[in-house]
Amino acid sequence: MKLFSFPLATLEKAIHKRVLTLPSPHREWFAERWAQKPYKKAFVENKAMPLVTLVAKGKTLDDADFAELLQEWDVKFYDAEEEVLRPLIQGDGLLQLMQKNLPPERAQALLAKLTERRPSAPPSSPQAAEPTID
Questions:
Q1: Which residue among 19, 26, 72, 88 is least enclosed by CB atoms within 10 Å?
Q2: Could you tell me which residues come within 8 angstroms of residue 54 by beta carbon, excluding any fewer than 6 positions away?
Q3: Which string of DSSP letters, residue by residue, matches 7-38?
Q4: Are 83 and 22 in contact (CB under 8 A)?
Q5: 17 in any annotated domain
Q6: Segments forming the whole domain that contains residue 40
Q7: What CA–CA distance (Å, rounded) separates 121 from 76?
Q8: CB neighbours of 58 closer than 8 A, spacing ≥ 6?
Q9: CB atoms near residue 52 (< 10 Å)
């Protein structure tokens, strides 16, 4: 059962608005991927919408439940994705009212989650040169 539903169009509009203000290397990287429908869908469903849900639920959940939800959200972010999503936590843009009563320590936990990076594969590993399908 889904306890929270945020309008998808509003979220996509907020992301698009943020892309327009990104600094140069991040803007090109993210805009190129955002134009691809599979990436856009995966980004919204797996990264942006769960973040919005955590912000919304973070105001009312107890610490243990919030920590469990945060741990279950198993994603890693690229630099440009972090730049796009950071304002959703920090109270910028269309979603500002949602962050109004978010405890600061939970906002910090969400920001820390954004800074988790994908592990870099060493250039000599076979997977770095050629991905394999299991």
A1: 72
A2: 66, 69, 70, 73, 110
A3: -HHHHHHHHHHHHHTS-HHHHHHHHHHHTSHH
A4: yes
A5: yes
A6: 8-118
A7: 14
A8: 66, 102, 103, 106, 107, 110
A9: 23
> Rounded distance, CA 84 to CA 46, Å?
14
The tens digit of pLDDT for each residue in 64-103 reads 888 898 888 888 888 899 889 888 887 665 455 555 667 7
For residue 2, being part of any structural domain is answered with no
Using an 8 Å Cβ cutoff, are 19 and 34 in contact? yes
> How many structural domains are present in the chain?
1
Q: CA-based angle 11:92:79, to the nearest 5?
A: 75
Cα–Cα distances in angstroms (integers) from residue 115 to residues 6, 17, 25, 48, 86, in the given order? 24, 21, 18, 14, 10
Buried/exposed code over 73-109 (b: 16+ C-beta within 10 A; e: otherwise): eeeebeebbbbbbbbbbeeeeebeebbeebeeebbeb
Q: For the chain, what percentages of helix, strand and coil (3-state, to nearest 5) are there?
A: 65, 0, 35
- Helical pair 104-114 and 79-90, crossing angle rounded to 10 deg: 170
Is 128 a member of any domain? no
- Predicted pLDDT of residue 55: 83
